[in-house]
Amino acid sequence: MSDNRSGEGILGAFILGGVVGAVLGLLFAPRSGRESRELIAVKAKDYWGEGREFYETGREKVTEVYSTGRDKATETAEELKVKLDAARARLREQVDSVSNEAKSKVTEYAPVAKEKVQQAAETVITGVANAESKAAELLDKVTEKTGQPGEAVKPSEGSAGTPAVE
Questions:
Q1: Residue, of 51 and 3, whose pLDDT is higher
Q2: Alpha-carbon distance 30 to 155, whole Å?
Q3: How far out from the chain centre does Cα 136 lie?
């Protein structure tokens, strides 16, 4: 298995390898104790320096990647905000334009529509007056033909304007 926790696994394996190597070197070393201790001290300083250098390099790279990512995210967010604001402005302009156009059309056609409604009302009134006079003429003719001057023909209630004789 691999350990992907920001280089901790690699650094830990490196240190463990160094410790195991040092222990095995002590056990099988053909040198004296003093020479071995000096050699271990030198190697420990070397390994410590390499480890520190490795840590600093890794930390710088992580910091750089984090900073670059943050800057890119901020830049992208700002670009999106500008584009969104521009889209809102265009939409607002279109809504205002269509609204103003609709208002002008209503203002333009309202008097014409009012005039047409008045003409239609006058036509209906004239038609009702004509129908009334023709109905009265028809009633008069029916009265003449029946010969009963005292009885008048009345339209029945609830009918749709058709005269009925009682």
A1: 51
A2: 141
A3: 69
